[in-house]
Amino acid sequence: MPMNDPNVGFGLGAIMAPAGIIAMMMRQPKGPLRLLIDAGATNPHDARRLNSVGIAREGLVERALLHGVVVKEVDGRCWVDRPRMRRRRLRGAVLAGVATLAVVVALWILSH
Question: Per-residue pLDDT tens for 70-80?
């Protein structure tokens, strides 16, 4: 195998790149929704104040509040609506899959 062959080392890179991405994702700090869920704030009765679970600013859950994934009670406590969270994640995954398929099909059509 010549040293300037572009395929040299591809097998190792194909294994190391995904492993590195997974390792980086595992080291990520917990997001605000995970903090609320871990604190048990998944219904109105067990709602918690954001600062009590380590969320410094309400802006960190602003989108979730807007979409109803996080519900803010009148007294300021918040909780995660897990069924709604699951529906939104599923919808996002389906939309991403459809968009990816559309791009692949468009590129295939353009290349033929």
Answer: 999 999 999 99
